[in-house]
């Protein structure tokens, strides 16, 4: 069963911005769904270069499998700010 977790968006020491858990979350619990545009690798490569040219400091490209990437850079949700931390 899915229920929304309490999360906080804020500055991160890992990568500019981060999403922080405000409650304990077990390893098998869903936190939030990563959403954005599903694109192919070749499109992701082009977008990454364009984002650099446009001065976008961070891009949020999440690899799903060999040729599927979710681009949350311009149309994602807070999940794009999740950084890995063991604590």
From TrEMBL:
Report the subcellular localization.
Answer: Nucleus
- Main localization, broad class: nucleus
Q: Which UniProt keywords apply?
A: Chromatin regulator, Methyltransferase, Nucleus, S-adenosyl-L-methionine, Transferase
Molecular function as annotated in GO: histone H3K4 methyltransferase activity
Which GO BP terms apply? methylation
Q: Which residues form the SET domain?
A: 5-87
GO CC list: Set1C/COMPASS complex
Asked if Transferase is a keyword of the record, the answer is yes
PANTHER family xrefs: HISTONE-LYSINE N-METHYLTRANSFERASE SETD1 (PTHR45814), HISTONE-LYSINE N-METHYLTRANSFERASE SETD1A (PTHR45814:SF3)
Q: What is this protein's name?
A: SET1A methyltransferase
